[in-house]
């Protein structure tokens, strides 16, 4: 097991690197939108298609708003709901079974757009690793004052698949550092990979006036 411990800090990016990361994440929403807007997909998606389209555009708007706002707005984020929405996205773009084991309403203090990007990238990496014949397990839990999002795939193991852009884990690491969390990675050749994003549980403290 290897763990990337992280303490709260301000994340700085080279402009070109940051743009590449942003484009990487927007690509997922564009791919999902193209699929949902295809008339041939209507039968596969069913009556919930319009709601899914709205969900994707809302996530894009949230991400762009995050990019245009210099000050990070830390608030209470429903990690269970956010993870479910990220699972909806990757199911559309990869068609990989994503089995979601959720705890009821796990709350964390953070910026929703950055956390959405982090969870989305964990799932994106896992779906690529699982391939067309595999599956992904998504688990949200809370215990002893710590919340976690755990993503596991049954692929060949870390480093055993074609390399991606590398931007995904950078975004996950940035979220962990920004909100006082850490990343844990467990991977064995032929046994898949499990990545866990751990964050302090609970809503942000309310300051008295």
TrEMBL record:
SUPFAM superfamilies xrefs: ATPase domain of HSP90 chaperone/DNA topoisomerase II/histidine kinase
Swiss-Prot/TrEMBL keywords: Kinase, Phosphoprotein, Transferase, Two-component regulatory system
Domain Histidine kinase intervals: 21-203
Keyword Phosphoprotein: yes
Coiled coil start-end: none
Catalytic activity: ATP + protein L-histidine = ADP + protein N-phospho-L-histidine
CDD domains, per the entry: HATPase (cd00075)
Protein name: histidine kinase
Lineage: Bacteria, Bacillati, Actinomycetota, Actinomycetes, Propionibacteriales
């Amino acid at each position: 097991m290897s763990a990337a411990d992280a303490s709260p800090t301000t994340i700085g990016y080279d402009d070109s690197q940051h743009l590449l990361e942003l484009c990487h994440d927007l690509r997922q929403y564009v791919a999902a939108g193209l699929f949902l807007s295809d008339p041939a997909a209507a039968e596969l998606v069913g009556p919930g298609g319009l709601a899914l389209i709205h969900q994707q555009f809302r996530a894009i708007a949230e991400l762009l708003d995050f990019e245009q706002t210099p000050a990070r707005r830390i608030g209470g984020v429903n990690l269970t709901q956010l993870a479910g929405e990220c699972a909806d996205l990757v199911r559309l773009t990869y068609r990989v079974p994503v089995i979601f084991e959720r705890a009821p309403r796990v709350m964390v203090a953070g910026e929703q757009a950055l956390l959405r990007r982090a969870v989305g990238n964990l799932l994106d990496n896992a779906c690529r690793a699982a391939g067309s014949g595999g599956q992904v397990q998504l688990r949200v839990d809370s215990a002893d004052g710590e919340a976690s999002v755990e993503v596991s795939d049954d692929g060949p193991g870390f480093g055993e698949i074609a390399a991606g852009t590398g931007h995904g884990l950078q975004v996950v690491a940035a979220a962990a550092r920004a909100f006082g969390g850490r990343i844990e990675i467990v991977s064995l050749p032929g046994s898949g990979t499990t990545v866990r994003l751990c964050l302090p549980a609970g809503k942000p403290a309310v300051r008295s006036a």
